[in-house]
Amino acid sequence: MNMPLQQNDYVHGKFLREFFGVARFLTAFIAVAVVLMCFSFPAYAYGVTREMKYPQVIAPDQFESLVLDHIDEVMAATGDGRRYTAEVVHIPRDMRAPEGELSFSVTTPNGVRFYGNTATYFEIFVDGVSFRKISCQVRIHIYDNICVAAKPIQPNVPISSDDIRMEEREIGTRGKNYFFSKDDAVGKVVMRSVNIGQPLLQSMLKWPVIIEPGAPIVIMTNMNGVMVKMDGMALESGRLHERIRVRNNSSRRVVLGRVVDANTVEVENKS
User: What angle do CA 155, 160, 162 make, to 5 degrees?
Assistant: First the structure.
């Protein structure tokens, strides 16, 4: 017996709804699977994870230890006996390396600097083969005994040994501007007042004025190996080793000479 037409349409519609419902479910399932595969692809694209490919970890403190040991070696090689400290101001983060025997090469191709940063370079080897090159920055603090004021020092008063004491200080960028021996500062004068404990810098000190304008002086010059002396007069004030203008009393000629002492100015003979 044949089904009525309406019942047949109902059965057919139910079948289509179930079919499309299953199709939508399968479509959603496939879409989710594809997304999950995309997110997990890097982890197993080559069959291994990053941790499996690079199982060894080089920590920052290992880099720091290598750098400081290298700086110690470099400083020892220079023969510089001054006290110093070193701090690493830039170091790589954790670094991974392949399986194998690790070795390192550390260099400072530009040498160490006592001001600013010292560039240090690493080369990492795995089983003797170069794996990676990196760099870091080190700051070296150097200390030395320098001359400082033991008491207030007034301008234009010759400095005595009692005015100075030796004290260890970090010398930094002014290393070449300090006095490292009292003898180099004694007898000189400052241009402005200096307080107790203030370092004496070469740029602050000068020899006192020992020749005044109008003072009679002896002009000394070398002529063919013979030292000739003439009477003259200073035309400006002068300190030891400074060059000043003087006038020859006989020829009235004005020349430039170097102050030798309070009575003598040496003129270079250009003839």
Answer: 115
CA distance linking residue 64 with residue 59, whole number of Å: 9
pTM for this predicted structure:
0.65
The pLDDT tens digits of the residues spanning 167-177 come to 999 998 777 89
- pLDDT category, 19, cuts 50, 70, 90? low
Contact assessment for residue 134 and residue 124, using Cβ atoms and an 8 Å cutoff: yes
Q: Is 100 exposed, middle or buried, given 0-12, 13-18 or 19+ CB atoms closer than 10 A?
A: middle
Angle (CA) 180 181 185, round 5°: 105
What's the length of the chain?
A: 271
**95: part of which helix (H) or strand (E)?**
strand 95-97
Helix (H) or strand (E) holding 32: helix 5-44
The widest CA-to-CA distance across the chain, in whole angstroms, is 156
How far apart, in whole angstroms, are the C-alpha atoms of residue 95 and residue 132?
10
